[in-house]
Fold each of these.
Amino acid sequence: MLKQILAKLPRKSSKCDSFDTSGSNSCNNTTNSGNGIPFTNSCTVIATRLNVVKRMSTAIFPTSIVAGGDSVPPHVPFKDVSNAEKQSLFISKLNLCCSIYDFNDPDKDSAEKDLKRQVLLELNDFVASGSARFTESAIAAVCKMCAVNLFRTFPPKSYLSARGESEDEEPMFDPAWCHLQLVYDLFLSIISQSSLDAKVAKKHVDHSFILKLLNLFDSEDPRERECLKSILHRLYGKFMMHRPYIRKAVSNIFYRFAFETERHNGIAELLEVFGSVISGFALPLKEEHRLFFSRALIPLHKPKSLGVYHQQLAYCVVQFIEKEQNLASVAITRLLRYWPVTSSQKQLMFISELEELLEMISVAEFEKIMVPLFRRIGYCLNSSHFQVAERAHFLWNNDNVLNLVMRNRQVIMPIIVSALERNSQNHWNKAVLNLTQNVRKVFSEMDEELVLDCQGKLEEENSKSNVAAERRRLTWERLEIAANYQPVTMPSNISGLVKPATCLVSC
């Protein structure tokens, strides 16, 4: 068999460039026969050709593949192997960490759990040292290990769908976090390495991998969501080819949350990541980004749990309007459509966001929405919930709002003055009454003649409404008197009933 293999190999050229195990040139072992033909030692030829076979097999089947990635035992420390074997040991340790254990029982498999944790710590140190080489086989092993440990279906639990009203509720913590944290740290460290080639890694960090990673944002453990936030930010920056897919997948999460379930634990973290993503959008904005603003971001104001993520949501909206100011009127119009009539806490958040948007809106865009906007503000001024009424009165402390009102006082003052007059007469809270007097004073200083004119028209309207109310009262009194009138009882016989009808007809 060996002779057949050697016969098929190409003949060695006269110029020898290979060295034997002792370091001497193999050509030095040649001697001349008696007829002058050079004679080569047969053992040297066989050794040389076997080395050629070995090099060819190594080139076709790398050591990590031939040995199944486990040519070096995983329990050996990195410091005890040569640099050539560290890559194989790296993959071997990753394969060892694919074992899953039950952490609900702390006494079960404790030795195996400790061993896995030590290996994960060693892997993190190895990657942090910069000694790891991220070949395709290494990236595949990393993605496999992360998928086995991280990708899981969360058990059905009571979602914190109203966490905005019950912020004191304790979060849920995963008992396996001691291992999950190390896996997250390892993956984050790897994708943060400058030596990682995104074109090679994208074969394994593909759309399916990213989608499963995004699904983990629904975890009830806030520590896990924090790690995922950092990883998603790195992935978006590293894998430019996956950016459109990431935006689409996150949009779908927002759609499902806002229009279907209203149950998701990671909306705040996703919005925090997208706050920095939106700030990097180029101008002019693409149609895709405008649709994301109007169809995905703005409807997030609807769910009851708005208080959990409102700060991050408002920041994203502001980032969009800083890019294009004409989106401010779109945002305010949609906010008025989603106005929470029965939730005072959400009303406070909406008023704060409106004030922030009014600081950025242009005069032309403001004129498009000022009438419905200040009608809603007028309702808030008259709110029986004193915090809502106070927050609406504080709008006039903003110089930008005052400037917009000053430019359009002919339209806005009649709406607001009537609300202030109703407050001064009917509101129960003393602090709100004091704020009402302060706003009336500001308006009088702005345009006293217009304020007096508005008050005169309001008194005229009130007098007319009083006259109409008096007429309605008198009408109802006459109807009540007529209803209480008892007519004369008619005869019970049929003939007596028919005769008056005949007489009426003849008449």
Amino acid sequence: MNEAQHHDLEEVLHLTPKQVSTGLALFYVCYVIFDFPSNLIMTRLSPRVWMSRIVIGVGIIGSCMAAMKAAWSLYLLRLLLGIVIAGMWPGMAYYLTLFYPPSRTGKRIGQYFTAAQVSAAVVGLVSAGFQKMDGLGGLVGFQWMFLLYGLVGILVGFSLLWWLPDRPLPPGEVPDRSGWHKWIPQSTPALTGEDALIHYRDLTRVYHRSRWGVKDLWHVVIDWRVWPLLLMYFGVVGVGIGVQNYATVIIQSTNSKLTSIDLSLLTAPIWIMDLIAILLVTPFSDRFHHHRALFFSVPVCIQIAGLLLTTYGGSEANPWPRYGGLLMVGFGLGPTVPITMTWTTEIFQPRHGEVGVAAASALVSGLGNLGSILTTYALFTGWPADSQPGRKQYRKSTLVMVGILCLSILSAFAMTLLLKFVGNGSRAKQVSSGSSTSEGEGVMMDGAAKRELQERGFGRLWWSRR
């Protein structure tokens, strides 16, 4: 932002490209470390209070970023940002399973995830406006952006205490208002009357949860099913964050004549394509939820094709095919992360219950973000061999991203085959009651779980026949 006026982040803070990459990567280091404990805390406390705490914390740190003066302040605030935001993404995946069956969360997680795409697109558009504010009140463009976004985040965070519903309670049960609860505003229940009664009968596991202990947590950690999902997430989130952080420098490498405002505006369509793909694909991935690997792998192939076009397409006279490749990458990215998180909840809920959803989602999201560290620190401007200007700039970085996407595809199909031959039987007996429950495969299943076993979608494809 405002590079021509020497008011961009690097010049104002006197940073080298390597220091920028380090600052970006430090966020994910803390995210990896704190994602797991944050999600476990959410299962013991009020989910809406914990979500509100995260958003308020992000807003405060975001506002403070307007005051950065040197590399050390960038490092410190990025570390703090990773700590306070940890648990937000896997926490939302866990939160949605309190209201929907796991096999029906793909579309809902996708709808929630569209906020990230809308945000990325809006940032690209409004950053052009913030650049016009450069110098106003003694602040440069990026300082205005951090300050205003941070203040909005704080206001939204406090509003969640009134707006966001807490976990559902059995019909007739009143919320606990003792202890610290009496100081927290009471939100409106998500369901009331007949709707609440139907939900209670259909998702009894939500209402009759058992307290988990260290042994239960250990069973989730050592479950082999975490690792294929983690590798799936590693590839797609690494590419997604890499493109998000370096979209402008990738676009500039394809056309050096573009101004900083042009670059900001051209990033928005990438995330609009991402949003479109989420809305198109995730509902089908729920309808045919026994074939998650297929709905995951096809978009990943689109990403690979887009990266190759960005790397090898176009010419000096016509660089726009390379930009078209970035649009393909954006489209392919859309459904992959929501599908991975949905598949995680779908596999671990019947096996381990609520702690399985919370812990596995956090492990997949947290450790999977090691891919983000790779793309933000080791690649692009963080990789000296790829930082030299010219037509071949960033070629090695994009080929590395192609490689980790191939790993994601292999992991998805490995998971499908392993589930077919090893199985995904339920470990623990789920506590259930009501007329919609039935006994099966050593577990008490509520009505929603029973339907998930019966629904197949697409008929019996060769890899899912039993």
